[in-house]
Design brief:
By secondary structure, this protein is mostly helical. It has 15 helices and six strands.
């Protein structure tokens, strides 16, 4: 082989080696870039979105698309890199599975934590307690204060005949059928759904057995709940409910007016808590000082104790009772004894007191 040929071989070998080296370098780079990108992506996904433990509340309206959700999160400082967040959401299959509602995040959470919470629909809940004998309007106001319902929509639905029929409520209003209890609610719920939850609990507590007993006693479901609501409003002591029930049962049997103070003020706006003469003359269909028998609807939402008391009155002949100003009452079978009790327990500091009334929970002839 000539020297010239040998030189050419050397050159070619050098070229081959150089190309091979460059090819290896290129392949290395092609593998390195995705690997580094992967490490960067993992670092992004598992790094806190901020410093500290600050809580961030995010409200996602119904019907918001994923892009809109990212906009909201970005405005709240929970998304710094949109493209990375989109890729992470795609990898977690989260984009189409996010439930609307109110969420609470902390800045110590990672983007992966945030997406997992959104995908679970881990919405912020509110424990809302409704005490026994709370009125329908008070229920609506309390729910509205938590921004769980629109108050006016709630009140409109409370007398919507078609909606009431769907709930099994035969009366003209939801008053009495919103069972007083503690509920876990969230802002993703519509007003109808919140109402359904409360009425559903009513039907769980007011069993078919109780309703059967009511029919045997001559009461419709509406009449039972109406009487129970009056008993509840008049009762400051659980142990007296069957006694108060007996007073009203005895009056109904004798054709006497119930003359219950809470019924007289049921439709009085801004009632101060002190019964006055003008209140008893208030001309409304619930005022049992003016009407005979039971009002057309309940005057509050009674608990199960009041409902059971309405079905099982004590076996006594009482026709009157007057408040003893300590949450309990003095009961009487005749008006003369009742008047003596009134004189004994009358609140002397009461302004413009009603004759024969010793307090807000007094029944008079």
């Amino acid at each position: 082989m000539s020297k010239r040929a040998e030189g050419l071989d050397v050159v070619l070998m050098g070229l081959f080696k150089n190309v091979a080296k460059k090819r290896f370098t290129l392949i290395f780079i092609l593998f390195l870039i995705p690997f580094l990108s992967y490490l960067s992506f993992i670092n992004y996904a598992e790094s806190p979105v901020g410093e500290g433990k600050r809580t961030v509340t995010v409200d996602i309206p119904k019907g918001t698309g994923f892009r809109g959700i990212v906009d909201i999160l970005e405005q709240k400082g929970l998304v710094q890199h949109r493209l990375s967040f989109y890729l992470l959401a795609f990898s977690q299959r989260a984009a189409g599975h996010i439930k609307a509602g109110e969420y609470e995040f902390t800045v110590s959470m990672t983007p992966l934590d945030i997406l997992k919470k959104l995908r679970r629909g881990d919405i912020k809940g509110y424990l809302v307690t409704f005490p026994e004998d709370i009125t329908l309007r008070e229920v609506a106001a309390r729910l509205a204060a938590y921004r769980l319902v629109d108050e006016q929509t709630f009140l409109k639905l409370s007398t919507d005949r078609e909606f009431l029929d769907s709930l099994g409520v035969e009366g003209p209003s939801l008053e009495g059928f919103l069972y007083p209890e503690t509920y876990l609610l969230d802002r993703s719920m519509e007003t109808r759904e919140v109402i359904r939850i409360m009425v559903r609990q009513f039907w769980k507590r007011v069993t078919p057995q109780l309703l059967s007993k009511a029919r045997e006693s001559g009461f419709t479901t509406q009449e039972l709940i109406t009487l129970a609501s009056i008993i509840g409003k008049e009762s400051g002591d659980k142990g007296e409910k069957t006694l108060i029930s007996a007073v009203f049962h005895n009056r109904l049997k004798k054709g006497m007016k119930l003359q219950s103070d809470p019924t007289a003020v049921y439709e009085v706006n801004g009632f101060s808590g002190i019964i006055k003469k003008k209140d008893l003359l208030n001309n409304n269909p619930h005022n049992t000082y003016l009407i005979k028998g039971l009002p057309p609807t309940a005057i509050a939402n009674p608990g199960i104790d009041s409902i059971k008391a309405a079905l099982s009155p004590a076996k006594v002949d009482f026709l009157y009772f007057v408040s003893k100003n300590d949450g309990t009452h003095s009961f009487s079978t005749n008006y003369a004894t009742h008047n003596e009790a009134i004189s004994r327990y009358r609140n002397q500091g009461e302004q413009d007191p009603v004759p024969d009334l010793g307090g807000a929970k007094t029944v008079t002839p």
